[in-house]
Amino acid sequence: MYGGALLFLEYFLLGVWWWGHHILQNTTIPSPGWDLAVFWSAANLAITHGATAAYDWGLLRATEAAILPPDIFGPFSYPPTFLLLIYPIGLLSFGAATVAFSGCGIALYLGMLNKTLRSVPDALRLPWLIPAVAFPGVWVTLVTGQNSLFTAAAAGAALVLLRRSPVAAGACIAMLCIKPQLGILFPLYLLCERQWRALASAAFFSVLTLAVSWLAFGTATFVAAARSMAMFRHAIVENGGVILYGAPTVFGMLRSAGYSTTVSYAAHAGVAMLVIAVCVWLWRSACRFELRAASLPVATLMVQPYLIYYDLAWLALPMAWLAVDFVRHNSNRFENAVLLAAWLVPAQGLFAVLSHRTGQWAPIVLVALLAIIVRRARAPQRVIAPHESFDAATPPVAAIGAHASNPARGTTA
Hints:
This protein is mostly helical. It has helices spanning 2-23, 34-49, 57-64, 80-86, 94-116, 126-134, 136-144, 148-161, 166-174, 186-193, 196-217, 219-237, 250-256, 261-284, 289-303, 316-329, 333-355, 362-378, 396-405. Pfam families: GT87. Its main location: membrane.
């Protein structure tokens, strides 16, 4: 019920937003999908002026001006591998590109979650479908027009396929070349899991993706991309001011609080090394696969110095894997509360940017998520008995809700 109510509210607000910009033509209200406007402009420039033009900030600003308010400019800070993916949307109008891009992202995201929760019978999938669509991470991604649903789908599919089709899993990992910082922990994870075929496949398809991008766009485009990303890092990541309020990382929190770049990077590096050490122990242990799979996206979000609230769409992955583990091995009230906080925190991240007051709560939620994963990995493995469990076919989301409403039904992992 709550998921359905939030789903209605989210898309009602999106409709009001769209109405204010497109129908009332209020120029102070940016069009929904402002980051997609950057992607579309880059693709359009690549088609009309050559791929290097996508990284020309002057040309990009002029193209974006037809869509975005004059005081808003977004540089294209992605590698040519992502430009290759979005190249076709430059052939469409911006409206059609928005529908196509958003629709593909939602379809891939839901398909990935469907496979993650594949043990749930088809007839009982609706109870988790509404919370999955209502997840604020999806809404925030659609509002901004970002690619987080694509990257989450690629990472999630890799985890689903890893045990039964490691070559296909490696191909999915290679898709993270569109935003390579999100794939940084996958090689370490595969080494710890001794998934040699998946590791070789990921390396092969990553090189193949880079080679195809190079053949399509040439060396000059890669040089232009490197220069543009260096400018982006200096101008926005390290000195971005307001935008850093939207960074749900230790680095972002410290920079927005006024600490120097050096101090912020050093503190973030310390946290990242601790997280990696914990995860290496976890990945080399004999704990349940669901827990190892849940920890990877959590760690990925924690080690990145620069993320924005829309990247928290990745929280769908640990929530799904933990939901399955909760059904099989029970959970307690605190764990259910942490999962609820993880479900809500992408919306808080957006509101923190709009208000400039609350700060980002995501780092705290991520620490709590990793903590419950580690606790469950250390606890004695106990599968709940049929007479005290949910029905074996109970969908994970429904199971979590049932736990929350009746915590007496077991409190150990």
